[in-house]
Amino acid sequence: MDHRCYTCLVKSFDKLLESHPFPEETKEAHMKDFLRFLGAENGKMLPADVSRRNHQKIREMLQDDDPYRELKIQSNNGLLTQYHHWREKVQQSENPFETALRLAIGGNIIDYAANPEFDVDETFEKVLNSDFAINHSQLLREKLEQADTILYLGDNAGEIVMDKLFLETLNHPGVVYAVRGRPVINDVTMEDAQSVGIDQYARVISNGADAPSTLLHLVSDEFLDVYRQADVIISKGQGNLEGLLGNREKSIFYLLMVKCPLIGDKLGVQKGDFVVAHNHLMKN
Asked: What is the C-alpha radius of gyration for the chain, rounded to an integer number of angstroms?
């Protein structure tokens, strides 16, 4: 936890409380409880652990296991209507692998936690015509061609439609696609992955946890087995990166759009930059 994380987490929890019709005294009580929790946490937790706790609270308060379900369906359906358009763009491009990869990273803009105001079409245009701030995409392609088993860590609903396009383009028989074990924010669940057809191009498994990240101290034994056996891991999004950053035991490629200055500082890039970074070539 960096000192900037505390400010961000308090603002995020405040937005979360304000986005639902809770009584003011309920909001005040839960914010005070959260501030006490942060004070006692003493910098030992990852931000994703704290976000997990906050969204558990909101689900309990709403008595709703998946408050973002309708938003996820809208995001998935919206991108699915464009699927054939982008599929043609990929197939007609000089480098289908790179084009599909860029679109998969562009889809990472769909994030109701980091930035609920986003323009998907504008982001796709930008990612197709921008230089990556870190670009290990050629190494990624080589590693994927050599791999028997690939573990792909999914991130957000909507974005997963572009993951599907990338996996279709990759056409690899050994891909395992991991989703969250329970709904949290607009992160992908088994229901979401199956609804867009990810299971046509990968074996879909649950990671067994409800954090908006991949936190190895929370995941299931099934996930850990796949994680340990995978030759290459593709980690989509900032949340997964936060959980795995600093990991050197596996070959991990981080694919994301950078959404906060702290992560930008850790990667040596700017907020808003697009990144394909191999963990063995990173400083952190």
From this structure: 18
Q: Give 265: exposed, middle or buried? Use CB within 10 Å, 0-12, 13-18, 19+.
A: middle
User: Per-residue pLDDT tens for 125-178?
Assistant: 889 999 999 999 999 999 999 999 999 999 999 999 999 999 999 999 999 999
Q: Superfamily assignment of 72-281 in CATH? A: Uncharacterised protein PF01937, DUF89, domain 3 (3.40.50.10880)
For the chain, give every domain's residue range: 3-62, 72-281
Q: In what order do the strands lie in the sheet with 134-135?
A: 134-135, 274-278, 252-257, 232-236, 150-153, 175-179, 203-206
CA triplet 10, 12, 14: central angle to 5 degrees?
70
CA 162/CA 166 separation, integer angstroms: 6
Cβ neighbors of 52 (< 8 A, separation 6 or more) are 184, 209, 210, 211, 212, 213, 215
d(CA 166, CA 38) in angstroms, rounded, equals 39
Q: How far is Cα 207 from Cα 11, in angstroms, rounded to an integer?
A: 28
